[in-house]
Amino acid sequence: MGEKLTLRLERSLIDRAKAYARVRGKSVSRLVADYFALLEPTTEPEEPPRLDALPPITRSLFGVLADSEVDEEDYRRFLEQKYG
């Protein structure tokens, strides 16, 4: 038997996950376990994603901010201002 994992998610996301699982004849736990099984261990530095492997929308945005002076600290400040 597996270990217990608690996730905190928006109600609408939980409802969608349950409906998705029901249609596929699986439990939400099985869906999560199947997804986690696809993840590769992160013991080594990640390679940058291959552009051809990205979804079209993500591919179109890839590198847009490469020449920008925006960094993680700018984003962190933005989130702190937005969410307090």
Task: Give a topology summary.
Blueprint: H1 11-24, H2 28-38, H3 56-61, H4 72-83
How does this structure look, described?
- This protein has 84 residues and is mainly α.
- It has one domain.
- Helices cover 51% and strands 0% of the residues.
- The protein is built from four helices and no strands.
- The longest helix is centred in the first third of the chain and has 14 residues, at 11-24.
- The radius of gyration is 18 Å and the shape is extended.
- The model has no long low-confidence stretch (mean pLDDT 87).
Strand content: under 5%
Helix and strand element order? HHHH
How many domains would you count in the coordinates? 1
Quick one: biggest sheet?
none
In short, what is this structure?
The protein has four helices and no strands. By secondary structure, it is mostly helical. The N and C termini lie far apart (41 Å).
Features:
84 residues, mainly alpha, 51% helix, 0% strand
